[in-house]
TrEMBL record:
This is EDD domain protein, DegV family. It holds the Pfam family DegV. InterPro entries: DegV, DegV_C, DegV_domain_contain. Keywords: Lipid-binding. Transmembrane segments: none annotated. One of its GO terms (molecular function) is lipid binding. The lineage of its organism: Bacteria, Bacillati, Bacillota, Tissierellia, Tissierellales.
Amino acid sequence: MSDFIISSESIMDLTNEYVKELGVSFIKSNYELNGKIFLDDFGKSLDMDSFYKDMENGSSPSTSAINTQEYINYFKQMLEEGKDILHVCLSSGLSIQYPCLLQAIDILKEDYPERKIYPIDSKMASSGVGLLIKKLVAYKNEGLSIEELYQWAKDNCLHVICYTSNENLEYLARGGRLSKTAAGIGKHLHICPLIQFDDTGHMFVGQKIRTKKKLINTMIKKMQENAYDGLDYADDVFVNHAKNEDLAIEVKDMLLDNFKNLKEVKIFNIGPTIGSHIGPGAISIFFWGKSRKE
């Protein structure tokens, strides 16, 4: 069985230390803030507190999709080392990156016909991609081949569930995902949209909930309803936030109080690529559960 690499992108919103522990490779996207270009590298180029503080002060960062040539440059070294690659990409429902990935793979086949790159459309974003990556690493360590992992990822990526929200609707309005009028009304009524992913990897507002406290309670309740084995859920949960660590810790404590068999609950920052669109104050949970097709 040939050696292979599990690969993804910095939009998986983990940390450099955690990614190193997992032993995965990743390609960095970039973003522009106040006229400067930064790498999305888990806050190494610009720490996340500074990034979100700039947004709170009125800055509007813009993001760039990873293009075909950038994928080609990234993969070449691994291919030249004789490695096959399983690459997990940001949802095709949110970005043009997946078509660029496929184009890059087609081009590289000509120069490296003996090597294979297996593309996975995660139909997910942020630490939900990270959750999928962690599972793939665990199965690789158990001895699964790259072909087996590829099939497993395609069969199970829709079992990664996400609930996310932001009490401050200003940033969703800035990005055109919500009208300014709706954002103004929502702010006045303390409405928090509960945002989810559908089976095509697009985001949608599943519910509109008044007050942050009710929002968090709803997230916990919906996890009880949709997680594998309900309250007996015994796998990982990733919680991430955009400059809202106190709330993330509160959510983690509630998860531990309600789900007694959890394997691990990790808190991560929402990185700049995703954070540019959802804004400071956002909170998300990711877990394994019923298929989003159901």
